[in-house]
Amino acid sequence: MIELTLEQILELHALVIKETGGSIGLRDLGRLESSIATQSQNVFGQELYPTIEDKTAAIIRSIIADHPFVDGNKRTAMISGLTLLNLNNKRFIFKPGEIEDYAVSIATNHLDIPHISTWLQTHIS
User: Fold this and answer.
1) Which of 3, 20, 34, 56 could form a disulfide with 39 if both were Cys (CB 3.0 to 4.6 A apart)?
2) Cα(81)–Cα(63) distance, integer angstroms
3) CATH classification at residue 84
4) Residue 61 exposure: Cα atoms within 13 Å on the Cβ side
């Protein structure tokens, strides 16, 4: 599996802010590093998030919930997740506005990783 790096997520954040507006900047490097670590996290020798959908859900939720950036956390989380899926040959299909609405739902309803993973699975072809 191809994982996203710190540098890639920082670049994605910069692109998101450039294209959609807001303030660029990292608020908490440790929280971002923690989000990135979810891609390969192990507990008692077992992968905590074994599927690409689980890993993607974990990184999305972590960036949204932990707010490592000054601005654009939801946008960066979603573009990071979609990029992770794309890098691993997963095609994500969605309707206009659906990704934005779901990102807000994750934040406001405190959706968990299994819920996000299931949503991702329903949109992957």
Assistant:
1) 3
2) 10
3) 1.20.120.1870
4) 21
What is the rounded (10 degree) CA torsion for 50, 46, 6, 29?
Answer: 120
Residues of the domain holding 81 = 6-122
Tokens of 102: 């779901």
Pairing relationship of beta strands 46-47 and 42-43 according to DSSP bridges = antiparallel
Tokens standing for 16? 């998101």
CB of 35 closer than 8 Å to CB of 12: no
Q: What is d(CA 98, CA 95) in angstroms, rounded to the nearest whole number?
A: 5
Question: Residue 32 — very low, low, confident or very high, per pLDDT cuts 50/70/90?
Answer: very high
List Cα–Cα distances, 17 to 27, 50, 95, 110, 122, in angstroms. 14, 31, 22, 24, 28
pTM of the model: 0.95
